[in-house]
């Protein structure tokens, strides 16, 4: 009996640590847009900010990539998909979006990804989904209508909204790609290894697209304006690379292992809330009451769509779980 009590206590402590790491990851990811927007407004191109973020994180994670170099032979398609979609695609679209629309709005639009995955499953793959998942999609779309205030004729920049939607679509592409390899029977790849190689692939792709050699590097030695307060550009970049990318990914992966993809997914939804609050406090980006309510509905719908069980006696939907879900639970965050 004492042994059982000790094991239960250790399990409880492990879950407590996991929850704390998941919260830390959500906080770190949520601060990326708030730190990036002043750099963009100071004159850096959004693609250059993305390149600096991804390349810096790839350099830090290089030892991890070397340790897991066998992944290049075992899962090349997964690494390419993660780098192209979950790293380069999501980051480029998201940072371009926040240069035109509020940080919170961009992230809430991006959180349509779980609902879009269910749409892919139902209408493209023609596989059944649960009623709860369908309800999640309806809630997410309805909440988004409130966020963008459709009754006022889309008060936000239309291109900015499309870019945020592009980030969501890149997440969908990665989820679908991961699902294609989930039945291979191979051992699930180490998430940290996939993240490290994804950052390297993303750096290579973004180097061609962003052309960093054309960047005005002197801007990094100056200050950026954060709602009237000058902040060193180098400090903001350091936060984006070390905290909002490296620390965020690592703590997120460890939290999934200590908790579960479903629980970690719930905490991950706090990322949008944290980003909105930080943008409100640090950047002065205020949202109206209907937008706040709509944002809560989007998060609720995204969580329901993401965590709903597959329909009985049917193939498991892409968004319902599995080993690849553990990899993607934190791998596509902004």
The percentage of residues in β strands lies in under 5%
User: How many independent structural domains?
Assistant: 1
Helical content band: over 70%
Largest sheet descriptor: 2 strands, antiparallel
Poorly predicted tracts of residues:
311-331
SSE class: mainly alpha
**SSE order, one letter for each helix or strand:** HHHHHHHHHHHEEHHHHH
Q: What is the strand arrangement across the widest sheet?
A: 1-2
Radius of gyration: 20 Å
Count of alpha and pi helical runs: 16
Can you put this structure into words, describing what you see?
With 334 residues, the chain is an all-alpha fold. It has one domain. It has helices spanning 2-30, 32-41, 46-60, 62-67, 71-74, 76-98, 103-110, 113-124, 131-147, 158-180, 191-210, 233-258, 261-268, 270-283, 289-307, 323-331; strands at residues 223-226, 229-232. Strands 1-2 form a two-stranded antiparallel ribbon. Helix 9 (131-147) packs antiparallel against helix 15. The longest helix is centred in the first third of the chain and has 29 residues, at 2-30. It is globular, with a radius of gyration of 20 Å. Residues 311-331 have low confidence and may be disordered.
